[in-house]
Amino acid sequence: MKILIHDLRDPLPNSNKNIFDLEIFAHGKYAPCQGCFECWTKTPASCKLKDSLYEVCRVIGQADDLYIISENYYGCYSPSIKNILDRSIGTSTPLSTYRNREMHHTLRYGKSHNLSVYIYGDITDKERESWQLLIERNAINYGFKSHKISFITDLKELKEITD
Predict the structure, then answer these.
(1) Alpha-helical regions (H) of the chain
(2) Which of 31, 41, 106, 147 could covalently link to 95 via disulfide, CB atoms 3.0 to 4.6 Å apart?
(3) Within 13 Å of residue 139, how many CA atoms lie on the same side as its CB?
């Protein structure tokens, strides 16, 4: 299953319309993560907040390929994208395991294939470095086998994002 999470105000170019099984538009009209960890313990992979992100843990956890398009905010995701990712903590469990000789949470759904992140907006060299590290760590924590990051100077470059 290919999933796209984006904060674009304009729709994607037509060439990308039928590539994704699910498109999540980060419009910001949902509650932020409360940090209660019920999605870990009480109601595994389901958020207690009953809005459009109620089952985002399951959706992201079961994705084979995850594509994220985000505006650069000081070397990090836009607030609306960050909110979705915060609400997806239930893709893992509270238990720990070693992955790549580091301690990480056990994955609830197993490993996925690819994480592809596309960043647009003004980006400094230091922010690029932050992005590289952030995406590398996100890929490990979410259990993706591979990852890539692309910095977009013109949104027309998104014409074929799955290449």
Answers:
(1) 56-61, 79-86, 125-142
(2) 106
(3) 20
pLDDT band (50, 70, 90) for residue 136: very high
- Higher pLDDT pick, 15 / 20: 20
In angstroms, the CA 47 to CA 107 distance is 17
Evaluate whether 91 touches 57 at the Cβ level (below 8 Å).
Answer: yes
On average, the pLDDT of the chain sits at: 90
pLDDT given for residue 18 in this prediction: 74
The β-bridge partners of 96 are 105
Contact 8, 157 (CB under 8 A): no
- Domains in the chain, please, with CATH? 2-160 (3.40.50.360)
- Interval 109-122 mean pLDDT: 93
Q: Which residues does 101 contact at the CB level (< 8 Å), separation at least 6?
A: none
Q: Is 126 exposed, middle or buried (0-12, 13-18, 19+ CB in 10 A)?
A: exposed
pTM: 0.92
Q: Say if CB 134 and CB 75 are below 8 A apart.
A: yes
